Amino acid sequence: MARQSPHALSPVQTPPVRLLGIDPGLRFTGWGIIEADGNRLRHIGDGVIATDNAESVPLRLKFLHDALTRLMADFQPDEAAVEETYVNRNGAATLKLGYARGVALLAPALIGIPVLEYGAMRVKQSVVGTGAADKNQVQMMVRRLLPGATLKRADAADALAVAICHAHYRASRHAWAAGTQMA
Fold first, then answer.
1. Is 23 a catalytic residue?
2. Contact, 166 vs 34, CB < 8 A?
3. Catalytic option among 23, 35, 46, 79
4. What is d(CA 86, CA 80) in angstroms, rounded to the nearest whole number?
């Protein structure tokens, strides 16, 4: 009988996990929910939270918080991932994006859901294979990886891409942790 190599580790078995991806914005915040079961991903839902430009910034932020809170109550995610903000030339727009991002980070944290952050290049590289991918490439790969995803807007596709990125990095972290515990 052949001996098994000590380096041949069996895959780490973890229960399925529900992940919320968020692409924050003050006007449109994309969201996507997936379930990761090992290396299998399943689309649960996606959409966009739209705020009213005619409202004050504090009321728009409250609306965003309340919508994210309802979303989490409905879908019960185990973890959340938020896309990091990039800085652009318009300081006022960057600041407003930062406000929305703060709400996107805070809402899950307030109810005890772990939140991780990923830069846009890391998300694109994880989903498409290159950090220089354009929005069309990201949407095409999200559709391929998550059959049934509706992708109501590009913001929803970006949020699902953040969730996919988190699923990949999460699996790697768990495998690494299991490997170091066995050593």
1. yes
2. no
3. 23
4. 19
**66 in the Ramachandran plot: left (φ > 0), alpha (ψ -120 to 50) or beta?**
alpha
Q: Where are the alpha helices (DSSP H) in the chain?
A: 57-75, 91-110, 120-127, 135-145, 154-182
Catalytic residue among 46, 79, 155, 158: 155
> Catalytic residue among 35, 46, 79, 83, which?
83
Record the tokens describing residue 36, joined without a space. Answer: 């990761």
CB 147, CB 41: distance < 8 Å:
no
**Residue 163 CA: distances (Å) to CA of 9, 15, 17, 36, 178:** 27, 17, 11, 9, 22
Digit-coded pLDDT (tens) for 119-177: 999 999 999 998 889 989 999 999 999 998 888 799 999 999 999 999 998 876 666 55
* Tens digit of each residue's pLDDT (9 = 90 or more) over 60-75: 999 999 999 999 999 9
Q: In terms of pTM, does the model score above 0.90?
A: no
Separation of first and last alpha carbons in the chain: 25
134 is catalytic: no
Residue 140 vs residues 126, 134, 149, 154, 169: alpha-carbon distances, Å: 14, 10, 11, 11, 21
